[in-house]
Design goal:
By secondary structure, this protein is mainly alpha-helical. The protein has 2 domains: 30 residues; 138 residues, no CATH class. 65% of the residues lie in helices and 0% in strands. Helix 2 packs across helix 4, helix 3 crosses helix 4 and helix 3 packs across helix 6. It is built from 6 helices and no strands. The site of zinc ion has 8 residues, from loops.
Length: 171
């Protein structure tokens, strides 16, 4: 059987139409107005958390918010897949409304900053401020690196929990 180019184009278009219909159905299930309110509220949480420095990037709460929304929808009888898609769409709309674009892969690499010539070389350990031994660039020892990482994680979890609770209490 010969597949024509127009068949492929049509298949793509009907796939997109189907995806759009499914998306609309999900939003309809939540209630359009409620959807809009939630996007607005989540946007506020993200903006405030970023402004007060709870998160170092506007995307800092994306993960916790997504699984918070998903969990709440699951408890309301949604399937995991539907709930996850809804949560993802909601967060995409939040970032769109805030006019935040995701950095590309290159911008996420440490070399990006080095190339720009803005990297300031450390001479002391991030955690204990002892002079760095030869070959160490951030921490004096494995112990300091682990301890600092755990401390950062605890702080992230704590600030994330507060914001997530505020944001999803009303879902
Ligand atoms: Zn140290």
């Amino acid at each position: 059987m010969k597949v024509r180019h127009s068949d492929l184009v049509n298949a793509g278009a009907s796939k997109r139409r189907l995806a759009r219909q499914e998306r609309d159905a999900r939003r309809g299930r939540l209630g359009r107005r409620r959807y809009g309110d939630l996007v607005k509220r989540l946007g506020m949480v993200v903006r405030i958390a970023f402004e007060v420095g709870c998160i170092g990037s506007p995307f800092g709460l994306e993960g916790p918010l997504r699984y918070g929304i998903r969990g709440d929808l699951c408890r309301q009888g949604w399937t995991w897949t539907d709930a996850d898609l809804m949560a993802r769409e909601m967060m995409d709309d939040v970032f769109r409304a805030l006019r935040i674009t995701r950095p590309d892969w290159n911008e996420g690499q440490p070399e990006w900053v080095i190339e720009a010539g803005t990297l300031i070389e450390r001479t002391r350990c991030v955690r204990c401020h002892a002079p760095l031994p030869e070959g160490h660039h951030k921490y004096c020892s494995h112990l300091c690196s682990t301890a600092h990482w755990m401390w950062l994680n605890r702080r992230k979890e704590a600030s994330g929990d507060v914001a997530v609770m505020l944001a999803i209490r009303s879902i």
